């Protein structure tokens, strides 16, 4: 018979966040962490202890030997917390004893304890496992954690089910040449560009589904806004009244995310200097109207009538901020010519689709819309594009055997994080970026 587990695997130490919150003032505690910085002031040593979410200032008196301690040592400290307004978080730990658990074998290649590292991008990415220990770098991914958490919390609250779809696939969801090919036991296969087909299939099972997972694009680019592997936050929902239902769900997610970040990630917001956007209302502009308004206001002629160029996105974002008072703007009714075969055409004008992008501070961070749900309509649209429906037999199975009106969206997590944190390159918002030249670390 198995013995019943008692206690917690972390029962022997105290979380630094709880110490800073004042839950243990005046009581001896045992804390673990990494030595983030060390300053000997002559008889008294100030040690910054880095935990998983925060840092704690510790004070070592002359009776505690600090000679054998260095930055990035793993330590266990016993001490008593007390209020100290000048300390980070307003609390410091008076140390009674300190045990070194491990020491680094080599000096740090960069001073991670500095507030800003000011490294060039290539150096930073090459030293990524170390650089991420810097508090400012770490805060970027705390904000990213908050976005994922808010996405899950919002959708679970709306009755969505989280699913996990394959990333090795037989065919690309988006088509084109930007797809990674691989040998699958002698058969041709690909890395998934999108969970599109599978999340649509799951609408027939759970009605509302979502996924946070990697997607792969074999695009030979080297821009500040693209990655070859990025994380997509996807949702798909059935029984739509309108594609605007999807936009409403995204608005609810963003409202929850910004409130959560403001309430529970204040240290990270301050460290990164984030200006939290107002998402009480997100304006909408039609694609053709948005292009016209931006062209007229900023004097840039329209070159491509079927898509938005990056400079146009920037100008539309600028227009939304200056004229509509919003950092976000939904752009709706994209031309059918530039949307995938599964996008539903607008019955009032089939040259356009019931689709949208969300621009945030001048960059597209979301693409979504309503899908074709009737079998013959989907087959006809494939044939009109010189596609071969027999190659999509498993996908078309859902249409053949009944689907409700449905649609969804995909949010680029790294782009959303980068825009929110004010980063000028999406690679800064990816833990270990994959691009044309980088496969490590």
Helix fraction, binned, reads 25-40%
Shape descriptor reads: elongated
Strand % is: 25-35%
Contiguous helical run count: 12
- The whole-number mean of residue pLDDT values reads 93
Q: In total, how many beta strands?
A: 18
Q: Gap between N and C termini, in Å?
A: 45 Å
The H-and-E topology, N to C, reads as HEEEEEHHHEEEEHEEHHEHHEEEEEHHEH
Question: Rg from C-alpha positions?
Answer: 26 Å
Judged by helices, strands and strand pairing, the structural class is alpha+beta
* Strand order of the biggest β-sheet: 6-10-11-18-17-16-13-12
Query: Major β-sheet, in short?
Result: 8 strands, mixed
Low-confidence stretches: 1-8
Features of this protein?
single chain, 30% helix, 18 strands, 12 helices, disordered N terminus, eight-stranded mixed β-sheet, alpha+beta, 441 residues, five-stranded mixed β-barrel
Please provide a written account of the structure.
With about 450 residues, the protein is an alpha+beta fold. The chain is built from twelve helices and 18 strands. It has helices spanning about 15-20, 120-125, 130, 135-155, 195-205, 245-265, 265-270, 285-300, 310-325, 375-385, 395-400, 415-420; strands at about 30-40, 45-50, 55-60, 75-85, 90-100, 160, 170, 180-185, 185-190, 210-215, 230-240, 285, 330, 345, 350-355, 355-360, 365-370, 405-410. The strands form four sheets. Strands 6-10-11-18-17-16-13-12 form an eight-stranded mixed sheet. It has a five-stranded mixed β-barrel with strand order 1-2-3-5-4. A hairpin with a 2-residue loop joins strand 14 and strand 15. About 35% of the residues are buried. The model is unreliable at about 1-10 (pLDDT under 50).
């Amino acid at each position: 018979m198995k013995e019943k587990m008692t206690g917690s695997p972390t029962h022997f130490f105290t979380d630094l966040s709880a110490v800073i919150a004042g839950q243990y003032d005046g009581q001896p505690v045992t804390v673990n962490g990494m030595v983030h910085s060390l300053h000997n002031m002559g008889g008294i040593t100030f040690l910054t202890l880095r935990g998983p979410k925060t840092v704690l200032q510790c004070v070592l008196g002359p009776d505690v030997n600090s000679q054998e301690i260095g930055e990035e040592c793993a330590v266990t400290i016993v001490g008593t917390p007390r209020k100290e307004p000048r300390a980070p978080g307003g609390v410091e730990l008076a140390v009674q004893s300190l045990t070194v658990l491990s020491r680094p074998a080599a000096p740090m290649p960069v001073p991670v304890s500095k507030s800003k590292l000011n490294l060039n991008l290539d150096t930073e990415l090459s030293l990524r496992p170390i650089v991420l220990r810097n508090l400012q770098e770490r805060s970027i991914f705390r904000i990213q954690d908050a976005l994922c958490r808010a996405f899950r919390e919002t959708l679970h609250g709306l009755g969505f089910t989280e699913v996990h779809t394959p990333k090795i696939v037989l065919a690309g969801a988006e088509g084109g040449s930007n797809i990674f090919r691989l040998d699958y036991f002698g058969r041709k296969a690909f890395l998934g560009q999108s969970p599109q087909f599978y999340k649509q299939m799951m609408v027939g099972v759970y009605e509302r589904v979502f996924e946070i997972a990697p997607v792969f694009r074999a695009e030979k680019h080297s821009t500040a806004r693209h990655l070859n592997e990025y994380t997509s936050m996807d949702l798909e929902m059935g029984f739509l009244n309108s594609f605007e239902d999807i936009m409403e769900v995204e608005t609810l997610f963003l409202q929850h995310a910004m409130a959560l970040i403001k309430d529970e990630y204040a240290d990270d917001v301050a460290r990164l200097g984030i200006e939290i956007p107002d998402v009480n209302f997100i304006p909408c502009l039609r694609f053709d109207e948005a292009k016209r308004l931006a062209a007229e206001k900023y004097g840039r002629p329209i070159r491509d009538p079927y898509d938005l160029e990056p400079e146009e996105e920037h100008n539309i974002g600028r227009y939304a901020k200056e004229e509509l008072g919003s950092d976000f703007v939904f752009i709706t009714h994209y031309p059918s010519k530039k949307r995938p075969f599964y996008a539903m055409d607008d019955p009032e004008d089939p040259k356009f689709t019931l689709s949208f992008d969300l621009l945030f501070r001048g960059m597209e961070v979301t693409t979504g819309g309503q899908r074709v749900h009737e079998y013959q309509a989907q087959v006809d649209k494939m044939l009109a594009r010189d596609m071969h429906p027999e190659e999509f037999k498993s996908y078309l199975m859902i249409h053949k055997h009944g689907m409700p009106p449905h649609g969804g969206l995909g949010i680029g997590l790294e782009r959303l994080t980068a825009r929110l944190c004010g980063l000028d390159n999406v690679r800064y918002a990816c833990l270990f970026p994959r691009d044309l030249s980088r496969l490590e670390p």
